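The freezer alarm interrupted the setup, so I double-checked each line after restarting. Inputs confirmed:
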Amino acid sequence: MALLTDGSFWFVIYILLLMGAGLTFYAVAFALAPRKSSAIKEDTFESGQLPPGEKRVRLVMQYFVFLLLFLVFDVVSMFLFSWGYFFFSYTQTQSLYPVLFLLFVIPSIYVTVKIARQVSV
Amino acid sequence: MQSETFTKSFLRAIGIASAAILIFVIYLIRYPILQVLYLLVTNPLAIATTDLFKVIIFPGLLYMSLIPLIAEWVERKLVARVQVRIGPYYVGGWEGFLQPIADLFKLLFKEVIIPKNSDRLVFLFSPILAFTVAAIPTVLVPYSKTFVIWNYAYGVLLFFALLAFFPLVVLLAAWSSNNKYSLIGGLRALYQQASYEIPIFLSVLPSVMLAGSLNFIGIVEAQARIWFIAFAPISAIVFFVAMLAEMERVPFDMPEADSELVSGWTTEYSGIAWGLYQFGIYVKLLAFAGVFATLFLGGFLGPSFLPHFIWAFIKVLIVVLILLSTRAFWPRIRIDQLVRGGWKFLIPLAILNIILLFIFQPYLSAILR
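Predicted 3D structure, all chains:
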């Protein structure tokens, strides 16, 4: 019963209910909808053309640099929350270093984006 | 045929699975159900304070599934009127307001086509995952001090964690459907959501700084004197733009650009599988609008002549309306403009607001407390 007083119990119930609702929609649709399979219907859509070759092709990761940037700055911005949480308990001189760091972030983003443009072309 | 036997076994499996989940959930919540039944006899008004009511009816399932249906009708009507069309007109009598429900039934009676060489199980389960992941953030949005399903102490962080799930679902759907359009759309969605997650993080930071709390109700209560949009207007704009990009709504709808990519990563989906995706998009709209209203517009606070949950409802509806109207008024921008714009303009703007708050910190603490 101690579990029931915690909100996370209802969180789990909510997720289970959502999954159950999705599955029920599927069950109803698969039971009611008429099914008639044919080769053309099950073929991959390619705007009326016959799809040539393998579909799971290797695509050029044009903006791959941005994904790397994301990996770095995602962690950085999460760490900022530990400073922002205690914003009013620090004095201005104490929180000068996070702000200097933030100021340093902007030119580094600009430089990386410029290099990314040179690399990807 | 092979697909016929697959369909039969799949139908049996999902029937058993949904029944098992339902029985398991009823077993878990047997005491709350008994409590509600007892209250129904003794004191019906007290039902609104129980947790079961919150999960099933008000900030929970019923509300969360009704608002998207209304929002879809409003969007179609609004876009039609801006483009000098009539829009939905016949179903339901008045201005075709039952059109989304008619569409839902139409989709239920349509065949779910499974393309050949696709990864069937992943293909069929990713719509359910997408719908679930899109709906989970509504758990955290407070509609009053009591009308919140999970008042988690670190709700903002949980919201970010849930945000990171969506690109994964999109990639699963894109990869499993074995289609070039789907794959290109999925990759675009990945870039877009990866680029715009950091502006969201940085634009939420001012609210957390001003409130000194990571709990959504704590953030709302800190806005009792002045809404945070007054201190963080740049952040509010950045959050709004990044929110549009995260939801793949119109100025940023590259992943499902209808004129280039058929319909992006949902190209191969049909019937109720596509319907669940579409439903998920509108549920996500509601969740994000709730978060925006909570972080910047004072959440459930307002003059006392109306109860708290009505104020929250009004604010969420206004944000939803503004989000919907973008569909009618803006053209689509290019993918490189979008990715570079996110990094070059939104992140510096979000940082600018944080630095402004740092500069005015001594005055702020006098105004806030």
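Quick read of the result. The mean pLDDT of chain B is 86.
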